[in-house]
Inverse folding.
């Protein structure tokens, strides 16, 4: 019976009630974040101006399971559990013996996986009396998610959006405003960090790193305000594990185990969320999937970056994190997958990669959009630019299966829909999209600015 | 248990396998369509240049149940069954004793209920050897749906899009092109109808009626081509009854019966699809809900139009249909709910209304968008402009319940999401949106042009 089905649904009583912390099961712990001044491991008091204590604890905990608060579950149930789908129509188009499954996170109000962490971040801040959150956003997925989440708990939300996106994507701006957020293009003249950048380059298109600097500065300036980050940090990846925990149950419903897991990696939260629960099963010897990161050729932090301590933002306000980085001063080419344009990779994903539990490949955007069109025309869903990388990688794997005759089970996360990214598709269909890259020289220059510890 | 739940899901094995034809249960049959030349009831041969024989049969059948072909069910299962949701968070905001349920059709690939009929229309044409379909679209929901549907069966799709939408909504255009459709702004110089309009007004913004004329003309010009209409006709409403049939089962899961059904009406297909299965239950005495149509104040065909024979298009190429009409020459004000800007109402909905089984009210767009913001901030989903009318009407009812203390069960259809309609929300949030209306004089002028039979 399961053999004939394509959609594997859980009901609202089956939303996971605990997040999974992969650190508890890794044979070696990940290196700690360091204070930017002292270069000593940061303590809770260093992070207290930025985050509520509950999230700081989650950032460093070695507990395996963290209970999800009821007030978070109530909001998760607006869209969770998300569906797991076998892409039978795409398989047929590819004429492959592979079985392609995708976990679809585009059903959330914001249209991506980001509310999985936005909601608990807002909840924990609210529970500790914080009434206002600041954040940055690139393409707008994260800002939309935090705007939605803060609205659920009656909090204010202030978003610094990378100026190039702010100018080019009014629809995303409107979506954030529908949920009640206040927006600022970044760099802005509202922060010292922003004013500094504008003084050097009044026409700066901005970057995620700059916007982070601004949102952090605005958060620490007020007692009632904290900062929220949409990726990279341990607690963010922790919250995202609801994706993988649900997918584990749904793969059981489908009566299959994955041979290959592929996920797109920008900051790493979608990837970690899908993969860590399966990595647990792998470490315990209960399954043995290949785990593969897919990153854009224009921001290849795993495949071409270096594993070292670097800042999370451009100006250097955040703690130093051991991660694969292209250098905190690096501004990736303007590919359409705005959510993947980040210089670093989550320390946890970087660590897992270094330990050899995951491999990585990079793909150019033309191949990604070609894959997205094949996907849309068969499975109906128009993917966001970010998960087009995951789809392209899944298709690469399925095409290898066609050559070898292997009937591998491929699992990926379709982490968002592309309804607000039609400009990218327009460029692709008009033939004006190009594959953007990264020269060795630019990479060298950016890396040379990274502190040596 | 059902009392505590909010989301009522069916699985893919529970997609309805038959459409329901309300004509079989109506005590009085609806008046037939008439040939525009002879004023005699049209026969199958009159419609054969436009539609495949299977759909012509469905247009006139009095059978109660029509089997859904397997090739249609296969595609329905990409997104169906759609969820039924109790809007508990909105209820809480309204502080109402009412229980508000919505059937959410925005989960389809096109983002609305329209693929429910686009898919079978493409399938039946394909089955009869047709390789190309033409159609019109206003806001773009229908064109997107037909583009998606034809892609599933390897057919060509040519869409005449109302020029004002074509120019203002490039995202919708791109969405249709992603699915492989060819687009023309209407009026175009590709048809006699279009050239005639352009000769009289080179800057014509177009209208649905004009675009229908063009698509019909282009269809009859070629043997391999037929025409597809997204609303109004009996077979379209028939296909949409999957909405109501699923909702009936889901309301049983929720252990409630609706006291009030509200649905937005443009051409009438979303409304008919939700309501007709419940009307069957009402006619059989198994439940007794109030059934209410909600239309925009700018295109109030039921509340201010006249019930008479009129053309479906502007030029007068279609059969004459007995319906509530504002006159086939009427071009509604440019409200944002493009899908509701139509001069007529589905003959079946008009007949049901005339027979007293349904009531109607009209609402201005400011109240609708106010309601939409309340909905988005509580339930997460950003509605398309069309169903903001249904939400506004549901909120009106819930507010009456608050006054009277009644705990009525309200059921509506959220027939699409608004991800591609952010311009409308931008206007609302910026305070530049106005309530548009319809003067008695304009209405009189339009109605005077309607043939007297």
């Amino acid at each position: 019976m399961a053999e004939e089905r394509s959609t594997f649904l859980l009901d609202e009583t089956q939303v996971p009630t605990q997040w999974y912390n992969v650190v508890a099961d890794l044979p070696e712990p990940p290196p700690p974040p360091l204070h930017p001044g002292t270069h000593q491991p940061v303590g809770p008091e260093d992070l207290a101006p930025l985050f509520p204590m509950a999230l700081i604890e989650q950032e460093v905990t070695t507990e395996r399971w963290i209970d999800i608060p009821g007030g978070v579950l109530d909001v998760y149930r607006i869209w969770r559990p998300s569906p797991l789908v076998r892409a039978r129509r795409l398989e047929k188009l590819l004429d492959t013996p592979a079985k392609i499954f995708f976990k679809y996170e585009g059903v959330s109000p914001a249209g991506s996986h980001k509310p999985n962490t936005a909601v608990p971040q807002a909840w924990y801040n609210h529970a500790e009396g914080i009434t206002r959150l600041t954040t940055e956003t690139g393409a707008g997925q994260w800002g939309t998610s935090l705007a939605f989440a803060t609205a659920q708990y009656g909090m204010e939300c202030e978003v610094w959006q990378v100026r190039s996106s702010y100018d080019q994507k009014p629809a995303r701006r409107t979506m954030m405003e529908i949920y009640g957020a206040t927006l600022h293009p970044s760099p802005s003249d509202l922060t010292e960090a922003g004013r500094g950048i504008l003084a050097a380059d009044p026409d700066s298109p901005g970057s995620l790193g700059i916007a982070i600097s601004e949102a952090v500065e605005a958060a620490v300036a007020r007692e009632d305000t904290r900062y929220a980050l949409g990726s990279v940090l341990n607690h963010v990846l922790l919250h995202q594990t609801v994706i993988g925990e649900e997918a584990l149950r749904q793969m059981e419903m489908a009566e299959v185990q994955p041979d290959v897991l592929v996920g797109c990696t920008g900051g790493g939260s979608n990837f970690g969320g899908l993969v860590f629960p399966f990595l647990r099963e792998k470490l315990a010897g209960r399954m043995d999937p290949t785990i593969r990161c897919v990153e854009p050729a224009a921001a290849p932090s795993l495949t071409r970056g270096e594993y070292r301590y670097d800042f999370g933002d451009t100006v250097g306000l955040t703690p130093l994190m051991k991660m694969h980085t292209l250098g905190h001063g690096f501004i990736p080419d303007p590919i359409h997958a705005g959510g993947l344009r980040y210089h670093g990779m989550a320390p946890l994903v970087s660590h897992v990669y270094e330990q050899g539990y995951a491999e990585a490949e990079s793909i150019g955007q033309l191949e990604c959009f070609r894959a997205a069109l094949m996907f849309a025309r068969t499975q109906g869903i128009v993917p966001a630019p970010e998960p087009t990388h995951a789809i392209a990688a899944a298709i690469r794997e399925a095409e290898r299966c066609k050559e070898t005759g292997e009937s591998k089970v491929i699992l990926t996360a379709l982490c968002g829909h592309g309804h607000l990214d039609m400009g990218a598709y327009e460029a692709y269909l008009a033939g004006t999209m190009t594959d953007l890259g990264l020269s060795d020289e630019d990479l060298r220059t950016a890396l040379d600015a990274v502190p040596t510890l």
Remarks:
- The domain at 2-16+69-111+234-440 of chain B is CATH 3.40.50.1100 (Rossmann fold).
- The interface with chain A takes residues 5-7, 9, 11-13, 77-79, 89, 107-109, 111, 148, 151, 170-171, 173-175, 177-180, 373, 376-377, 379-382, 417, 419-420, 422-423, 425-426, 429 of chain B (CB under 8 Å).
- The radius of gyration of chain B is 20 Å.
